[in-house]
Amino acid sequence: MERREFVQTTVLGAAALASSRLARALDVGVRLPAPGTTVHVSPVTGNDANAGGKSAPLRTLPEAARRVSRGAGSGPLTVVLSEGIHAVGETALFNPPRGRFTRTDRLTIRAEVLPDDPGWHHGRMPTLIHTLPVKDTWNGRPDPLGGAADGMLIETSHVSIRGLRVLGMPVVETPREGMIRRLYAVSRLREDLDDLEVAQCVFAGDEVIAPNHVGIIARGNGLVVDHCVFRGLKISAVYWSGGSTGHAMRHCVNDGLYGSAVWTAGIADDFDYRNNVVANCNYAWTHQDASSARADAGGQRGAAGVAAGAPAQPRARSRYRVLDSHFANNRRLAGSGTGARLEYQDIDPSFLELVGTKVTEQRAAFEHEQAKPSYLHPVAGSEAAATGAGLFMTRRA
After folding, report:
1. What is the β-pairing status of strands 77-81 and 107-111?
2. pTM
3. Of 31, 186, 192, 224, which residue is least crowded by CB atoms under 10 Å?
4. Cα distance from N-terminal residue to C-terminal residue, the chain
């Protein structure tokens, strides 16, 4: 009898399978996902000792990440999260050194039901709440500001994240002067990586109750953020490699961010920024130059939070087109600086070429009735709604 068959079919094997820690240590009793398969995660019916199929789902996203990271071969792989509350108690590290993905054969982490699917409503979005401890390091280095945590850490190319509701972490961000304890909900920190798509997700936080410091931060090329809603965060998305290419932010709603709705670190001029709504934010856009970004990556300063640094006026800026967007009631249009303390300074926004974009001091109205599909979207018929920003890629009746 084969060892794997023995583990799966005998009493002794069942006992080994029940101990996920032992299974992970020995790679015994753990069914690794084959390319082309789907791993299911359910916080209600799952068990991290299960095989991960639809009838025997895992319980946590970090365990799904471990299974993916130990897999091998080429071909697409999908992690499906059921509706419900997913407590993220440790970083979900996706790092499959023996797995190979491509633009067409991707690693996808997604909700079971997506916003454009029949029968979807906001209650069906898997909700990730972060309960992991904040260590006194970030990105592998000591952190003088008090520590940071990564929710999902992506260490492979060609990844899609779709249809999730991602909340902050119930900590006090600044429990004493000089500290900023931070959550980076989705991180990709290697510059050699490409092609990370985040679509139809809600990133929400509250500065007092559950701070969500940065929704998405990515080094490397090809961060595409599409049809997402960001509400109450510090920063929606950080594009963090100077000179990197292939980036986009499209059809996104940014409401009430106490930092900024986007942070660019000297990325290339091909940034596809269009059909976004930015309302009631501290800054619509913050920017640092490429040399400052390289210093941050080396640990000398700390873009969006490694270490505090004095505000730095960019010495040379790319020029970005802002297409068919709506900026409403933001404190300032553009700022610059480094560090997590919001030690920014206002800068001349002329590096932004506004094409078909309205900038107004008037407030934008958003839907607050939770039973409506348009919850958290601009109110129908408004100028902001005309951008098409929001979760839905297909027009709803």
Report:
1. parallel
2. 0.88
3. 192
4. 58
